[in-house]
Amino acid sequence: MTGPDLPPQGWSRLASGALARGGDIASSLLGILVTLFGLVLLTFVIGRTMPIDPVVAIIGDKAPPGVAERIREELGLDRSLIEQFWIYLMKLLQGDLGTSVMTGQAVTADILQFFPSTLELATSAMIVALLVGVPLGILAAARQDSIFDNIVRVISLLGYSVPVFVLALVCLLVFYAKLGIAPGTGSQGIVYQGMVPFTTGMIVLDAALDGQWDAFWDALAYLAMPAFLLAFITMSLIVRMTRAFMLEALNGEYVTAARAKGLSEARILWRHGLGNIAGRLVTVIAVIYAGLLEGTVLTETVFSRPGLGFYLTRSLLNADMNAVLGATLVIGVIYVCLNLLADLAQRLLDPRAR
Amino acid sequence: MINRRSLLMSAAALAAAPSFARIASAATPGNIVVMAKSIIDVVNGFDPAEAYVGTDYEITSNVYRMLVTLDPEDGTKYVGDLAESWKFSDGGMTITFKLKPGILFESGNPVTAEDVVFSLHRLMKLNKYPAADFAQLGWTIDKMDEIVHAADELTVVHRLPEARAHGTVLNTLATPRGCVVDKATVLSHEVDGDFGNEWLKTHSAGAGAYRLVEWRPSDRIILEANPNAEFPPAVPRLLIRNVPDPATQLLLLQKGDIDVARNLGSDQIKTARDNPDLVELSADSTAQMNLCMNMAMPELQNPKVIEALKWAVDCEAIAKNITPDIWDVWQASFLPRNVRGAVPSMFQKDVEKAKALLAEAGYPDGFSITIDHFSSWPWANVAQAIQADLAEVGIKAELIAAETGQVITKYRARQHQLVLIYWATNLYDPDYNARAWCINTDDSDDSPLKSQAWRNHFVDEEMSELADAAGKELDADKRMEMYDKLQRDFMAKAPVSWLLQLREIAMHRKEAPGLHLGGMAYLNRFGGISKS
C-alpha cells in the first residue's frame, strides 16, 4: 500500500474524518429524500382533498354524469387515497410523472417546455440583480445616512412595495408603447417563431448555439424588459440584505482594527467587509434565486412568457394533480440543490462554517 | 468604480437601443395574421372527437368542415358545408345527404361519404365527452352501422334512431362534433386502436380553410392555409398568440404588433374606440350569467321568495356600471336573445314588489343566505351589487368567493344556496337549453341525468314532459309554441334568475379586416381575414 508517510494516529484521524464526511453525505442524502418524499406526500394529500373536481377541467361542466364517472375511473380517482398515492409513487420511481389533464402531454414534456423559459428569465434577472444590488448595498452601508444611502433605500423600497404587475404594465407602457425602444410581449418576434431549433428551450441560448444571430438579438430584446423588471425587484431585496449585513460587519472590532492599521476604505469594504458577509449573503441569494425559479406568475402573465409558475398555478386551479406534483417536485429539487450549493459555498467562503 | 460601471452600462444600453427599437417597431408581416387571445382553455388538443371548449371549437371549425353549418347571416338557418343538399324521408326519420364533388382534404385525398361515415362512427367509438351530444339523440356505438352509412361515394344516409326535431339533429351535426376527418390519413397514424386520437391532438386532417401546424400549450397556435381548400384563406398564415392580459392585448394592438385582439375588457374597449386605426366587431354570444337558487333551502322552496329574488336585482345598473359593452341585460328565460323563439326580457328592479312578495311568503324581515361566485372580474363585482340589492329588500347575503373549479364543483354537488354562474348553450336550437334547465325526472343523488334543473332541486313534471315532447316534435311551428309556453312557465316557477348575456367583442387593426364572429366559438371564421 502506498501513501503519504503518516504516523498511525494520522491514518486513524484521516480515516475517521473520511468516515465522518461519508456519514455527513449519507445523512444529507437521507434528509433530501425524506424532504422530497414529504413534499410529494403533502402536495398529493392537499391536491386530492381540495374541493375542485379535476374531471370538470377535462370534460367541462356540461358532460353527463356517465361520462364524468368514466373519466374519474380512467384517472384512478375512484380508488382509495392510499392506493392512488402508492400508484403515483411507483410510477415516480420509474421516472414517470404521469400525464397532465390540461395539456394531454406527459408532465415531463410539459416541464421541459415551461421550465426553460423560467430558467432563462430568472437567471438573467439574477445576474443583473447581483451585479447591481451587491455593490449598491455595500456602498449604501459605507455611506450610511448619506443622500446616496437614502436614494438607494427609497429605490429598493419602491422595488419591493409596488406590485410587480403594476411595474410590468408601466414598463410596457413607457418603453414599448410610448418610447418604442423595447419590443412587446412574448419571447420572440413573429418572423422568428418556429425558426430556432429546440436545444435547451431557452430561446436566447438556443439561437446563439444555432448561430442565428438575428434571432438571438430578437430574443434578447424580448427578454430584456421582463428580465430587468425582475432584476429590479430582486435587486431591492439584495440591496437591503447586503446593506444590513454590511452595516453589522462595519461595526465589528476587526474593522476598527483594520482602520487603525491604516488600510484603505476600499480594501476594508471589499476585502474585510464583503469577505465576512459573503457566506450569509450567498445563502440569502440562493433562496431568492430559488424563489425566482419557482416562477413569477404575474410577470409571466403580463409579458406572455408562460413558465413554470404559470404552469403550476393553472394546473392547481384546475386540480391537474399530476402536473402540480411534477412541478412541485421540480421546485423542491431546485430548493434542495440550491441549499446544498449555498452550504458548500458558505463553507468555502466562511471558515467559521467549516 | 461605480461611475465606470454606470458609464459602461449606459454605453451598452445606448448601443442596444437602436436594435431593440428596430425590433420594437416591426409591424406584423403582410402574409401573417397575428391574433392575441387567451388560449389557456385548450385541453387535450384539437381532435374534433375530443374538443369541447372555446378555443378548441374555434380551431377545429376552421380546420375541418361538417356536413352542414349554420347560415353566417342567420344563425337559425342551416346551409350545406360538405353537403350539397339533403332531404328528409320516411316520415322525417331518414336524412339523405348528397356531398359536393371535388372537395379535397389537406392531404389531397377527396372527401367521400366513407370519410363522413368514418368520422361519425369514430366519434362514437372513441366515446369521449363530445359523443354524449349524439348519445342524447339516441345514437349508440353498437347501432352505428344502421344510424349512419354510405349509400354511394357521395351519399350519406342518416337514420334517426328516435324521433327528434330536425333542427336539433342538423345543429348537432353542425358543431365540431360533426367535423369530417380524412380517414386514410387518420388511420395511417393509428396507435393501439386509438383511431389516430393521439396524433390528431396536435395535427389536422381536414378540408377546412386552414391546417394546424403547431400548438404549444399556453403559448401559441399556428395555422397555415390548406393548399387544397375549396375556399382558401385570404392570408396564408395565422398565428394565435397566448396573451392572457387584456391590457397587454390592447397595447400590442395599438402598436401594430398584433392584428386582432380577442379578450379586451370594458376599459380597453372604451380606449380602443378612440383610436382611428382600430375597428370593433361584435356579436351576441349565447353565454348567460345567472343566479341559481337551490330549492333544498327551505326559504327557496316558496315560489314567492324565488319571484322576489328575480325582482330584487338591478341588472340595468350592473350592466351600466360594471360590465358596459360586454354583458348586456337579459332577464328572460332559458333561451338567449339570439336563439329563435326566445321570449323577451321581463324582470327589472322593483323593490316594493320584491318586499311585498317576501312578506306574502312569510319573510317580511327577509332572511340570511349565501352566494357562491367566481373570484375574478366581473363576478366578484356583480356579486357585490347583488348583495347590495338583496339587502334593500331585507335579505342578508354572505358572499363566498372561490376559484372557478371550486364553485362549479360545489354547484355540481348541490351544496350551494345561491350561486352566480355562467351558462352557454352548445346549440342555437332551443332543445339543448330546454333539456338542461327544465328536465328533472329523478331528483335523487343517484339520478342518471344530473341536469341544471337537478342541480337546483327543481322538479316540475309537466315542464319535464313538455321539454322532452318539444325536442321530438317534427312540426316546426307547433314546436316553437311549445317552447314559448315552456319559457314563460320557467320564468314564473324556476329557481333561476337570468341576469345578463355576453357580447363577444373583438378589435382589429383597420388593415386586417374579415374576422367573422358568429356568437358561438364554432361559428367564428378566420378564413376571411385579409391584410392590406
Please write out the topology.
The complex is a heterodimer of chains A (354) and B (532).
Chain A: H1 8-49, H2 54-59, H3 65-74, H4 81-93, H5 107-142, H6 147-161, H7 164-178, H8 203-209, H9 213-250, H10 253-260, H11 265-293, H12 297-302, H13 308-317, H14 321-349
Chain B: H1 2-24, E1 32-37, H2 54-63, E2 68-71, E3 74-80, E4 83-89, E5 94-99, H3 113-126, H4 131-135, H5 144-147, E6 148-152, E7 155-159, H6 166-173, H7 183-187, H8 197-200, E8 210-216, E9 220-225, E10 237-242, H9 246-255, E11 260-261, H10 266-273, E12 278-293, H11 303-312, H12 315-321, E13 327-329, H13 351-360, E14 368-374, H14 379-392, E15 396-402, H15 404-412, E16 418-424, H16 431-438, H17 452-455, H18 461-472, H19 476-493, E17 496-509
Parallel strand pairs in B: 1-10, 1-11, 14-15, 14-16
Antiparallel strand pairs in B: 2-3, 4-5, 5-7, 6-7, 8-9, 9-10, 11-17, 12-16, 12-17, 13-17
Helix pairs in contact in B: 11-13, 16-18, 18-19
| Largest contact between chains | A-B, 61 and 64 residues
Largest β-sheet summary of chain A: none
Helix content of chain B: 25-40%
What is the oligomeric state here? heterodimer
Task: Assess the beta-strand content of chain A as a share of residues.
Answer: under 5%
The CATH architecture of the domain at 284-503 in chain B can be given as Roll
Strand content of chain B: 15-25%
Give the integer mean of the pLDDT values of chain B: 91
The coarse silhouette of chain B is: globular
Q: Would you give an account of this structure?
A:
The complex is a heterodimer of chains A (354) and B (532). Chain A contains 14 helices and no strands. With 354 residues, chain A is an all-alpha fold. Chain A has 2 domains: 29-93; 113-305 and 345-353, Orthogonal Bundle (MetI-like fold), CATH 1.10.3720. The longest helix of chain A has 42 residues, at 8-49. In chain B, the strands form 3 sheets. In chain B, strands 1, 8, 9, 10, 11, 12, 13, 14, 15, 16 and 17 form an 11-stranded mixed beta sheet that branches. Chain B has helices spanning 2-24, 54-63, 113-126, 131-135, 144-147, 166-173, 183-187, 197-200, 246-255, 266-273, 303-312, 315-321, 351-360, 379-392, 404-412, 431-438, 452-455, 461-472, 476-493, and strands spanning 32-37, 68-71, 74-80, 83-89, 94-99, 148-152, 155-159, 210-216, 220-225, 237-242, 260-261, 278-293, 327-329, 368-374, 396-402, 418-424, 496-509. The longest helix of chain B is centred in the N-terminal third of the chain and has 23 residues, at 2-24. In chain B, α11 (303-312) packs antiparallel against α13, α16 (431-438) runs antiparallel to α18 and α18 (461-472) runs antiparallel to α19 (476-493). Chains A and B meet through α2, α3, α5, α7 and α9 of A and α1, β8, β10, α9 and α15 of B.
